[in-house]
Amino acid sequence: MGKRKKKTKNRFPWLESENLFMTHTGHEIITDAGWEKIIWRDAAKFFHQQTISDWRESFLEWVDIADLISAQQLNIDLDDDTAVDKFLESYNPPEINLVVAKAVYEEHSWVRVLLISTPDDEEPYFHNHEIEAILLGVHLRRYLNVHDIPIINDCQDAVRYLQGMYANIGWQPRNCVSVAHRLKIAQATKVYNEQTWEEEWSQTEDKEEL
User: Fold this and answer.
1) HSE (CB half, 13 Å, CA atoms) of 114?
2) Do 177 and 153 touch, CB atoms closer than 8 A?
3) What is the pLDDT of residue 60?
C-alpha cells in the first residue's frame, strides 16, 4: 500500500485570501523602514532648514530645558529669559534618530532619509513609512527598467495600500526582509535626502503620465 501524500499547508491562509503573500524566490527588491541613530551634524545635511527649524520647535516643547542645560554643563540662569532663548536657538543634540526607508536588489542598496524621529507621533502610523520604503523599491525598479521584478515588504497594511497602484508588490515575513532591515546609511550605494527625492520622484511620475 502506497504512502499517503502529505498535504502542504499554507503558512499564511488569511493572506492568501486577500492575495498579499508573495512566495520567496530570492530575486525580489527587498524593502523595509526603520530607525538609525547618527550624529546631528550628518543628520542635518538631509533636510531643508525649515524642516530642521520645525523639528527643533516641536522637540523643545516636550523636553526639560533645565536638563538640556545641565547636560551641556553650562551655567545659565533659568530666570534669564534672554540667555535661555539664546541657548535654545543654537541647541543641537549630539545624536538623533532618523526614520529611513530602504530598498535592496543585488548590488543596489538604496536609502531614503524620511524624517527626524519623534517616536510618540510616528509609531502608531509606522505603516506610512513602510509605504515610502515600497515606493523607494518602485523607483529602484524603474531605474533598473525591469518592471516585473517583485517588491516585498513585511508590513501588511503598506502592501495592501499599494497593491492596486503598482504591480508585483507582496508581503513576506520579517525574516525575509532582513537584508534591508540591517542596511545602514553609510553602506548604501545611493542616499536620497529630502530635496533629491522630491526632484527625482516627481520627474519620473511626470514622464509616466506623458
Assistant:
1) 23
2) yes
3) 81
Domains for the chain: give ranges and CATH numbers: 14-38+96-209 (3.30.420), 42-90 (no CATH)
- Provide, for the chain, the percentages of residues in helix, strand and coil under a 3-state DSSP scheme, each rounded to the nearest 5: 50, 20, 30
Burial (CB < 10 A; 0-12, 13-18, 19+), residue 168, is middle
Q: Which residue has the cell 507621533?
A: 121
Q: 194, 6, 16, 205: which is closest to 116 by C-alpha?
A: 194
Mean pLDDT of 11-27: 70
**Does the pLDDT at position 71 exceed 50?**
yes
**C-alpha span between 180 and 161 (Å, rounded):** 20
118: DSSP letter: -
- What CA–CA distance (Å, rounded) separates 46 from 99? 12
Q: How much is the pTM?
A: 0.83
Helices (H) and strands (E) in the chain — how many of each? Answer: 10, 6
| Of 94 and 150, the one with more pLDDT | 150
